[in-house]
Amino acid sequence: MTIKDTPEEWEIRSTETPFRGNKTSVRTDEVVMPDGSVARRDYQVHPGSVAVLALDEEDRVLLINQYRHPVRHKLWEIPAGLLDVPGENPLHGAQRELYEEAHVKAEDWRVLTDVYTTPGGCDEAVRIFLARNLSEAEGERFETEHEETAMEYARVPVDELVHRVLAGDVHNNCLVVGVLSLVAARGGDGLDSLRPADAPWPARPFAS
């Protein structure tokens, strides 16, 4: 048996979109099950996201702290954002988010991992990049708004972050998946064996 996710689409008898928001919507599909029955499935339709685990020369991860209203918490996170331009190259989106949220640029980019955040209720796909060889970005800082105006910043050693993850102190999915994937990659074939930054991403096809 090969352990690898495979694309598959069951028959949809009908579909409707009862809610359309600014960036996402909610869709209801009537899906034919293997036994021939039909079940309604409600889920959020999402454009996809990118996240950046930015690692500096002192083996620290760049974090931001931001209020997240749905969970009523201020969460420590890695820079991330929506792919709200159809077909956008995810690397370009990740570079933009690192600049806008942290005013940082990186010279070395790799794909750390790809995940579906909540596949039982949302079609969001996230590509998490590893960014190294960091430096301050040139030009004016990006003008923030809403929750971003109160963001805080920190650079935290990888070992401490792993401890915080396992202790239940940090909960952002991209941070948790990203830092544990980093440690796993180091313990395996090494960071230089990670996929290139422009590796194909079937979940969100993009132009080169």
TrEMBL record:
Q: Is Hydrolase one of the keywords?
A: yes
InterPro entries according to UniProt:
NUDIX_hydrolase-like_dom_sf (IPR015797), NUDIX_hydrolase_dom (IPR000086)
Nudix hydrolase domain residues:
44-178
From what superkingdom does this record's organism come?
Bacteria
GO annotation, biological process: nucleoside phosphate metabolic process; ribose phosphate metabolic process
Give the protein's recorded name: ADP-ribose pyrophosphatase
Q: Name one GO molecular function term.
A: hydrolase activity
Which SUPFAM superfamilies does this entry report, sorted A to Z?
Answer: Nudix
What are the record keywords, sorted?
A: Hydrolase
Pfam families linked = NUDIX
Output the Gene Ontology cellular-component terms: cytosol
